[in-house]
Every structure is written in C-alpha cells, then in structure tokens.
Design brief:
264 residues; mainly alpha; rod-shaped
Length: 264
C-alpha cells in the first residue's frame, strides 16, 4: 500500500503540473513577477521615507535640546554672577543632563542617516535590477508572442495540408465511385442487351417449334386424306426440317396403301 500511495501521489502531482503548465501564461507570469518587484521597490522607498521622517524628528528634538543647553548655560552664568552659586550649580547639572540626551540623539541621528544611506543604495540597486528585468521581460514576451504566432501559423498550415489531403482523398473516392458506377451502368446495359437478344431467340425458337408442330400435323392430316403435301418455304426449311421429315414419312404410308390396293 505505501508503494501504491506514493505512485498515486506522483501521478496526481504530474497531472496537476501538466495542467498548470497548460494554464500558465509566460507573459502573465513575467508581468506578475515585475509587479512584485515594483512592490518591493515601493516598500524600500516607504522605508527610506520612514527613516527620513524619524531622523527629522530626532533632529528637531536635538535642536530643542541645544536651545535648552544654551539657555541653562546662560542661567548658570547669571546665577553665578548674582552670587547664587547653588542655583548656578543646579543649572549646570541640568545642562549636563540635556547635553547627555543631546549626544544620544546625535548618535541616533547618525545611525538613521547610515540606515537611510543603505536603503537608498538598496533602492538604487533594486531600481536598476527592476529596470533590467523589465527590459528582459519585454524581450521575452515579444519572443514568446513571435514563437506563439509561428506555432499557430504552422498549425494552421498543417491543418490546411491535412484538409487538402482529405479533399484529395474525397475527390479520388468520388472519381473511383464514378468510374465504378459507369462500369456498372455499361455492364447492366450489356446484360440488358444480351438478355433482350436471348429473349428474341427464345421467341423465334418457340415460334419455329410451334410452326413445325403445326406443319407436321397438317402434313399428317393431308396424308391421311390423300392430299399432296405442299413444299415448306425456303426460310423455314432449316428450322422445320425435322418436322417435315416426320410429316413426309407419315405421308408415304397412306400413299402406299392405295397403290397396293390398285395392284390387288
């Protein structure tokens, strides 16, 4: 079962991969990749803008603290000039705290400037990369469109060739059928001609047979009555020979009988 399950999984993955290959449009894939890269570039720009905004805020705070430092220093000088040493000391202590905060802000500003520079460099590199990808994308899309057009033209030409071949075969079949029909018509005509000739002969033979039988009966009847037999027409001699001979033999017997009676 584990082997069968693995095989089924492989078959399913292969089928899905094949369907995805058919559904995938390279132009759409390239445009989608380009769009994602542009979105990354926009995110980098937004990051740079956020860093610049944060740096500006720190710089504003830094400016405020610098003003406080100047103010506290002035107050300390005034207190000391007025003989208020403790007040001057307090002003100087606050001045030191502000200066410490000012140094921290200055460090943060420098860090943000470095981060801004890195993001700017990254943004420039990414922009160049996206521009190169865009150019390559358009070239690939153009090549794909040309190849797709060539495939369609080839398929259309192949389809036309197949259709022409089918038309040629259909024409050949039509010619063969026509020739067969003509040959069949000629054969039927010959058979009809042969059949009609055979019927005429049969009718002539039947008529001759009937005439011969009638002539034979008539000759026999004449012989019995002692009447002379009439000669058979020339056209009917060949066909009625057998009947005449039979009639002649029949006539001789009655003709001999009176002769014998005369002699007696």
């Amino acid at each position: 079962m584990p082997g069968l399950t693995g095989r089924m999984s492989t078959v399913v993955k292969a089928k899905v991969s094949k369907l995805l290959d058919k559904a995938e449009d390279p132009a759409e894939t390239l445009d989608y990749s380009y769009q994602k890269q542009v979105e990354q570039l926009q995110n980098v720009k937004k990051g740079i803008a956020d860093v610049v905004t944060a740096k500006k805020r720190l710089q504003m705070q830094e400016s405020t603290l610098q003003q406080q430092v100047v103010k506290l220093d002035t107050q300390a000088r005034q207190a000391l000039s007025g003989g208020q040493e403790d007040l001057a000391r307090t002003a100087l202590e606050r001045k030191n705290v502000v200066q410490t905060e000012l140094q921290s802000l200055d460090t943060q500003v420098h860090e943000l400037e470095e981060q801004q520079q890195k993001l700017t460099d990254s943004e420039q590199k990414l922009r160049a990369k996206i521009e190169a990808f865009r150019t390559k994308k358009e070239v690939i899309k153009a090549q794909y469109s040309a190849a797709e057009a060539q495939v369609k033209i080839s398929e259309a030409a192949t389809g036309v060739g197949e259709q022409m071949a089918d038309v040629g075969l259909a024409m050949q079949r039509a010619v063969d059928k026509t020739e067969n029909m003509k040959a069949r018509a000629d054969a039927v005509g010959e058979l009809e001609a042969a059949g009609s000739g055979e019927d005429d002969i049969d009718r002539q033979l039947k008529q001759l047979s009937s005439n011969s039988a009638v002539d034979g009966d008539l000759a026999k009847l004449k012989g019995e009555l002692g009447m002379p037999a009439q000669p058979t027409p020339a056209g009917e001699l060949g066909a009625a020979g057998a009947g005449v001979e039979g009639a002649g033999s029949t006539e001789q017997e009655p003709s001999q009988a009176p002769a014998e009676g005369g002699q007696g």
